[in-house]
TrEMBL record, chains A, B, C:
Source organism per UniProt: Cnemophilus loriae
UniProt-recorded name of the protein: STEA4 Metalloreductase
Gene: Steap4
Domain Pyrroline-5-carboxylate reductase catalytic N-terminal: 21-107
Pfam family, one: Ferric_reduct
Entry keyword set: Copper, Endosome, FAD, Flavoprotein, Ion transport, Iron, Iron transport, Membrane, Metal-binding, Oxidoreductase, Transmembrane, Transmembrane helix, Transport
CC cofactor: FAD; heme b
Catalyzed reactions per annotation: 2 Cu(+) + NADP(+) + H(+) = 2 Cu(2+) + NADPH; 2 Fe(2+) + NADP(+) + H(+) = 2 Fe(3+) + NADPH
Recorded GO CC terms: endosome membrane; plasma membrane
Residues in Ferric oxidoreductase domain copies: 249-383
UniProt record similarity statement: Belongs to the STEAP family.
InterPro entries linked to this entry: Fe3_Rdtase_TM_dom, NAD(P)-bd_dom_sf, P5C_Rdtase_cat_N, STEAP_metalloreductase
Compartments where found: Endosome membrane
Principal location: membrane
GO biological process, one term: iron ion transport
């Protein structure tokens, strides 16, 4: 009588310890797939259906009964029918009283109904214990067993016991339950599978907008200006040259935007003298999408690297090289090596490659399986220290590349700076302010504030 | 008496709640490693051995007894002895009655015996409850603690309780149990660690065969034909040029083969008017190895990219460039820029790089840890939408690259087309049929069928 | 009375099955974040604090009481106060008797105190059951819910029941508990979050030292020697040429060092005639950091590849090419193709690219999420067979690249070999010895030894 822990079940022959029967309402794709998986895991399954004479797709070992008879056989009923038919359940209210109803439904649109399907079900059947679960798993994934997409099952319910029972089933099916709290969370859980990269929305819109702007900026300066004033048609720059000017600019700016909110946060904390007040909303949102910004920056950097490495293959470049060498040969001259140029060209290439290398390292450590295997201090070391090193290398790469043209008036077509000059504004600002922030006289109060010290403690009440 | 849940164990001093003693038969590598780990996790361990005077490699805190005495001390006995010695256990049948026997054995070959080791053990000792587990974990992994390879432990048994007990132990050791159902699954579980990438077999054989074919096809056209008709010895093309012609062709064809079965499936469903009939077997198998086909295609694309980027470093290319420029110089001429050529060359490079970029993106999202963190809709968006975008970009890359030669008779040596023309057949067919399938008049019935609608419902009975 | 298992909780209305109240001592960042998360997961939370009139940052649904009153309400008390204040708890010893105290503290330095904080707490309050847990999770991670860094919670305790209770809470919070055994492990658990890539320390120091050595070696031969004897200033080689000579040398040597300890181990086992004696300590440590060595080698290989691919973009290379072609043109000559050179150049490029390809494959399979999805045999196949293939390809790449200079006296400036010759020593030694080890006459006894056979069994006692 006192062997209560789950590790020390009595081995005496007891039939009560067998897995409990589960009832599934509805014989659609998902109901069948779930039933199949449950039978595999040792649960007796009984289907509740309008017609008990159903297709041969139902798992062999399952029983098929009418709704009421099926419900009576089990303590847990999986409601695998669409929300529109939930009202068919109201006549069964008495049978379902005290039972656990698992709502697995999904909608077609975000916030399609005023309340979540699970809450609607709970209103219809106030005597039952409604649990929201399984809606993020697809029938195909259950059936094929190759759970390529998420293994996570979000579970929420008002009744803790009922939730625990469902989470145990989830675990027995080889999936990972994640407790999301009370049934209020059902709305969020139902919206989850309808979302399409919600965290990526703002970063993608931002980078798309910026890229379009820089593309037309370059088009104006490199193609249209050249066409008007030099009468050269370089329209084919649209395919390769201009993208490869926009990519590095985007990569550098987006990388700087990853570290800018941290700078703002530090300044705000220093100004307020406390860390116990919320940041403005825009800063909070910005900080939450830093990873996405960084990965988009990495994508642009990758494109820049491959485009640059491929440039010797361009017929334009090989034409330009031939012409340069032929005219040298026709002038009977070989040129001496320009040492300054050799230094500059080798340096900016080396800086750029090293910057890209650390950028890729940052990308790899942001893979979920890698970041799950490092401790907190290591994660912060990589994302902060290596991140700033990457930013410094990439900024230096851009500066060495374009340095000689800063003071050259011919670089300013239509009095506009070249885009690599524009791209340096944000990263340089970030690096300068960061440098000020790590000076001991600024760093010390900031560290104290982050450890909980407050200049005017009244704020925190 | 009513605090039964695993969260609310009584804190009153009870000795019964301690972890139960586990007995291990056999003191080989795996038995010792498992015992060590169990002691670390708080289980008292007793070894059953022929000689109780055993080496100092046995964990210090473990007891060593004769088989019968050891078995009497525990409810769970881990059978860490080879299958050949299982019959030594029959005299112990009485002692082992009602106990849980964990079969951890592995064979040396696939399907070495008619029945699985676990089922054989269950036949020998019908009074015991046999559970298959732990056979996929290596002694080395248990000992070193660095579980680089799988943490998953497949468990199966006919007795649900016994299975639950073993799964609890698995969890306590920091491993992840995966319930595979009844003891019938033991054969599969025993075969699992003997498999060498079973899902990769067909894709690798297919791509190997195709690659060999295309290699000799190229060899004939580029080396042998040139040698016979132009008397040029280009045998060194074998090392670089021909591989770099075969790689992109393989990448494009394999990528198209990833999307071809989906096309077939749609046509079959449209033709049958229902989704409730099984696809032909070959189609099912093909669909299951799409991920592997895609990853092999990515490998070929990667090789193509690096080979292409490295081509300016070849001594043949630098010789060809020098000769071209020198003869230009000797003719005292500089050439004007060929704008069409510049457009074509820049476009096919840009298309190819973008195609490769999205291909890499597809590869990254197929990493298990990434695909576990996206929901089903996001996974399908990436694998379907981005996949087709990749296919379109790569097909366009090939078309722009070779477009000008299609109508050029000199491109048809021995009346055979160049391999990039062959490579376009499958992807173009896939893209054309896909285009037809997304026309509203075709897409609408297909979507209905996929939502469960049937043209002739009698089929599904 | 007999529905004890966690799967089959009674559904009868019982209030006793609700989640148990948890008490948290301390209202700092971590205490608040943990309380918040627990409330989300359905635990009633009560805070113990000196002043019950506390800031509005405390979760709304939590109660705040004095320490003694709060402790009385719960069976589990989370001690979220710094070690320096632990002695404040001694007056509460009577209230805390029999309760589970969860020590979540971290230190600022490795081994800051003679005993771990958890053991110190257990000494102060011998009547309580101390469990070490949660110290590896950050308050920020708990709050934001985005557990980018580790989800693993290391748990240790002397009392098995208390540990089980805490592990159940950990699981309910959506984290993964990992049982580390008795409270003796607390020291290790407390040191864990203070570590910064401990396994990487030796490989990084080694490769840093080697890289510095090779850098100065190259500097002497390529820059200083050229400056002294040929009066050429090639100082700009420091930025690009010399790094790109050091990178491949480092990659090759480090890759060989991954396979060297396995060779040593085999020789030692053959010599001793048994596998049951410990390897020397240095060999054990070396074998444990093979993965890190391999990944650093991959980083160097990646840098070498990108540097090499970028070299046509260098202004030095384009100057050298121009001058070569111009002088050819001025001499009115076009050169015939050197077939041997074409073969050599194409072969070493192809070998290098294939080597890099397999190297990247090795790197990808060492990602935790990938290696978790392969069985032990597949993991060993990739890491051993593909690893040796990579080593063979990279060694052949270096040999073909530099082969022609081995017998050329001008390659030995100051009678010193070029660094690629040095780089071949270790990989060639590894490959030769490995070749000997797989000869049947050597492989057979080695396999026997690895299966447990001993030449002189007395050793093992």
């Amino acid at each position: 009588m006192n062997t209560n822990s789950s590790n020390t079940m009595a081995l005496a022959p007891s039939t009560s310890n067998k897995r409990e029967t589960v009832c599934i309402f509805g014989t659609g794709d998902f109901g069948r797939a779930l039933g199949h998986r449950m039978i595999q895991s040792g649960y007796p399954v009984v289907y509740g259906s309008r017609s008990t004479q159903i297709s041969n797709l139902i798992p062999k070992d399952a029983e098929v009964l009418g709704h009421a008879e099926a419900a009576q056989k089990a303590a847990i009923i999986i409601v695998a029918i669409p929300r529109q038919h939930y009202n068919f359940l109201t006549p069964l209210a008495e049978v379902l009283r005290g039972k656990v109803l698992v709502d697995i439904s999904n909608n077609l649109k975000l916030n399609q109904y005023p309340e979540s399907n699970a809450e609607y079900l709970a209103q219809l059947l106030p005597g039952s214990k409604v649990v929201k679960a399984f809606n993020t798993v697809s029938a195909w994934a259950l059936q094929s067993g190759t759970l390529d997409a998420s293994r996570q099952v979000f579970v929420c319910a008002d009744d803790v016991e009922a939730k625990q029972m469902v989470m145990d089933i989830v675990r027995a099916l080889g999936l990972t339950p994640l407790d999301k709290g009370s049934l209020l969370a059902a709305q969020e859980i139902e919206n989850y599978p309808l979302q399409l990269f919600p965290m990526w929305k703002f970063p993608i819109i931002l980078s798309f907008g910026l890229a379009i702007f820089f593309f037309f900026y370059c088009l104006a300066l490199d193609v249209i200006h050249t066409y008007i004033y030099e009468n050269n048609n370089f329209s084919f720059f649209i395919a390769f040259t201009i993208p490869n000017r926009v990519f590095p600019v985007m990569a550098l700016i987006l990388l700087a935007l990853v570290y800018l909110p941290g700078i703002f946060a530090a300044i705000i904390q220093l100004y307020r003298g406390t860390k116990y007040r919320r940041f403005p909303d825009w800063l909070d949102k910005w900080m939450l999408c830093r990873k996405q910004l960084g990965l988009i920056a990495l994508a642009f950097a990758f494109l820049h690297v491959v485009f640059t490495l491929a440039s010797p293959l361009r017929s334009f470049v090989s034409w330009r090289t031939s012409n340069r060498i032929v005219s040298q040969a026709l002038n009977n001259q070989t040129q001496p090596l320009d040492h300054t140029n050799a230094w500059l060209s080798d340096s900016y290439l080396a800086l750029g490659i090293l910057g890209f290398f650390f950028f890729v390292l940052l990308g790899i450590t942001s893979l979920p399986s890698v970041s799950n295997n490092v401790n907190w201090r290591e994660f912060r070391f990589v994302q902060s220290k290596l991140g700033y090193l990457t930013l410094i290398l990439c900024t230096a790469h851009t500066m060495v590349y374009g340095g000689k043209w800063f003071l050259n008036p011919s670089a300013y077509k239509w009095y506009l700076p070249n885009i690599y000059m524009l791209s340096l504004v944000v990263p340089c600002a970030v690096l300068v302010v960061k440098f000020v922030l790590i000076l001991p006289c600024v760093d010390k109060p900031l560290t104290q504030i982050r450890q909980g010290w407050e200049r005017n403690p009244k704020y925190s009440e």
